[in-house]
């Protein structure tokens, strides 16, 4: 009788282990549709240089710690010294890696069309690229949603760039 109980106990423990492994595999390999996310961010900077950004996005959870996404953006900026204002639009792609919760590193490339004051003093409109890198925090606010706060540095800073370093972004993913 004791051997029988021991065999039952081993079978029960084994079945629990196998069931736990199956549950972990389901969590590790979610459906494709569960890996897609939507969201966006806003950028705000006030002072001598005002900057307001609205940027919806769609992305994909490549792994539990790596996200990639693409989006469109619209921004308004104004320099209070020159009284020059600009409306800008464009697209962006980014990659975000969670190092240790809640800390992330972030890299973002943008292709933007904007008007600006050229070196000769004339107002020009042109396309330019921006490459932003930095980090921040990501805070879970639901089963599949989180908010984020990033401090980024524009590596392609130029005379016509709308960004002044650092660039601060915040948003929500759902």
Notable traits:
about 170 residues; alpha+beta; 8-stranded antiparallel β-barrel; 2 helices
Uncertain residue ranges: 13-26
Strand content: over 45%
**Helix content bin:** 10-25%
CATH class of the largest domain: Mainly Beta
Shape: elongated
Mean pLDDT: 82
Order of helices and strands: HHEEEEEEEE
What oligomeric state best describes the polypeptide chains here?
single chain
Treating each run of at least 4 consecutive H or I residues as one helix, how many helices?
2
Biggest sheet statistics = 8 strands, antiparallel, barrel
Q: What is the CATH architecture descriptor of the largest domain?
A: Beta Barrel
Would you give the CATH topology of the largest domain?
Porin
Q: TL;DR of this structure?
A:
The chain is α+β, with helices and mostly antiparallel strands. It has two helices and eight strands.
Descriptive report:
The protein is an alpha+beta fold. It folds into two domains: 29 residues; 142 residues, Porin (Beta Barrel), CATH 2.40.160. The protein is 18% helix and 60% strand. The protein has two helices and eight strands. An eight-stranded antiparallel β-barrel has the order 1-2-3-4-5-6-7-8. The longest helix has 27 residues. About 8% of the residues have low confidence.
List the helices and strands and how they pair.
Elements: H1 2-28, H2 32-35, E1 36-45, E2 49-63, E3 66-79, E4 84-100, E5 103-117, E6 123-140, E7 146-154, E8 167-173
């Amino acid at each position: 009788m004791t051997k029988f109980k021991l065999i039952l106990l081993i079978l029960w423990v084994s079945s629990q282990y196998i069931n736990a492994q199956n549950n972990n595999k389901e969590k590790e390999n979610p459906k494709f549709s569960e890996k897609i996310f939507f969201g966006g961010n806003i950028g705000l900077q006030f002072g001598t240089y005002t900057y307001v950004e609205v940027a919806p996005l769609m992305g994909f959870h490549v792994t539990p710690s790596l996200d990639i996404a693409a989006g469109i953006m619209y921004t308004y900026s104004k320099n209070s010294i020159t009284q020059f204002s600009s409306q800008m639009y464009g697209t962006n792609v980014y990659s975000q890696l969670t190092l240790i919760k809640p800390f992330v590193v972030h890299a973002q490339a943008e292709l933007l069309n904007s008007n600006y004051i050229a070196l000769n003093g004339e107002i020009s409109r042109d396309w330019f690229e921006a490459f932003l890198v930095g980090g921040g925090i990501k805070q879970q606010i639901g089963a599949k949603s989180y908010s984020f706060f990033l401090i980024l540095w524009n590596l392609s800073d130029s005379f016509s760039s709308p960004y002044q370093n650092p660039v601060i972004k915040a948003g929500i993913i759902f």
